[in-house]
Amino acid sequence: xxxxxxxxxxxxxxKPKPPILMANLSSKSNxxxxxxxxxxxxxxxxxxxxxxxxxxxIDFPAMYRAVLGDDEYVRIKAESPSGIDILHQxxxxxxxxxxxxxETISDFERQGxxxxxxxxxxxxxxxxxxxxxxxxxxxxxxxxxxxxxxxERFGIxxxxxxxxxxxxxxxxxxxxxxxxxxxDVQPNEVMMVGDSLKDDVSCGKRxxxxxxxxxxxxxxxxxxxxxxxxxxxxxxxxxxxxxxxLETCFHLAP
Length: 254
Ligand SMILES: [Mg+2]
Hints:
Blueprint: H1 7-12, E1 20-21, H2 27-32, E2 40-41, E3 44-47, H3 60-68, H4 70-79, H5 86-90, H6 95-114, H7 122-131, E4 135-139, H8 144-154, E5 161-162, H9 174-183, E6 190-194, H10 197-207, E7 210-214, E8 234-236, H11 239-249, E9 250-251
The protein binds magnesium ion (MG).
C-alpha cells in the first residue's frame, strides 16, 4: 500500500516542491517499515476536467453568487467549509427558478469554454499512462458539450467521460463506480485526480478509490479544511507531481 512508503522516498523524487503524502506518515509506520510492503496495483486514473485537465477558467464564486444572490451565497458558504454544491442547492427549486439558475450556470461555463486551455503536464501525464496501459477516465459536473470540445480541441480522449447528464453527479461515488464497472476493475485499483476537495476527493474516497488533490495555490492548506470528512491520499501542486506519485507509490506494470 502506498500509505506505508517513507517520506524520504517522496522527497528524493521531489522537483522543486514534492507531492505530499497525506496519510499514514506517522512515526510508528516509518519506524516499522524496514521492508517496504508491496505497492498497490493501479489500473486506472479518473480525472476531473475544469481546473484539473484544463486551466481554471470558470469563476465559480462569481457563478454561485449570481445563482444564489449575495445573502444566500454568504450564508451557504459559511455553512459549507469544503465548498458549495451548486447543483445540489438548486435541485429542489421551482422549475422556473431552476431554469434561470441553469441559464446562469451555462453562461459562466460558455465563457469558460472560450478561454479553454489544457493544463501544463496533462498531455505528458496521459502519454505516460498510455505507455503503462493504464486506463484514463473523466468525471465532470460540466455538460457533455464541454467534454466534446475538450476532446476535439486537445486530441486526448478519455473513456468513459461522464458529464453532469450522468446522475447522480460527484461528489456521489456513482460515476466513479460506473467507470470501475465499465473497466472491470476494483475501486481500490483506481485513483481519482481533481482540484476539488468537496467533489473529486469525496467522490474518490466514497467509492473506495485513491484520491489525489491538485492544489496549485495551496488554498487547501488553510485550517478551515482540517476537519473535512474525506481527506486525499496525496496532495500535489501540479500534474507533473501526479506522475511522481504514480511512479513512486504504485505498481504500474500491466
Ligand atoms: Mg475542478
